[in-house]
Write a structure and sequence with these properties.
The protein has two helices and three strands. By secondary structure, the chain is of the alpha/beta class. It has one domain. Strands 1-2-3 form a three-stranded parallel β-sheet, sandwiched between helices.
């Protein structure tokens, strides 16, 4: 598995830190009980569905760029 091209989606600062330690790209799902605080995820989504759309857009962009 190519961790640099893998995504971790989480809703806590612990998830963000785990993804960072593993070398994954990070999407933080903000919610009523979730706060990214100072953990600085790569991207922030309002919902799991939005996070999935972000990943799909990135995959399409990479596919288009590669030919």
């Amino acid at each position: 598995m190519d961790l640099e091209r893998s995504w971790m989606v989480g809703d806590s600062w612990k998830d963000v830190e785990a993804a960072r330690a593993a070398g994954c790209r990070i999407i933080f799902v903000a919610g009523a009980h979730a706060d990214a605080g100072t953990c600085k995820p790569e991207r922030v989504a309002a919902s799991l569905a939005e996070a999935a759309e972000m990943i799909l857009r990135e995959m399409r962009r990479r596919t288009a760029a590669s030919g």
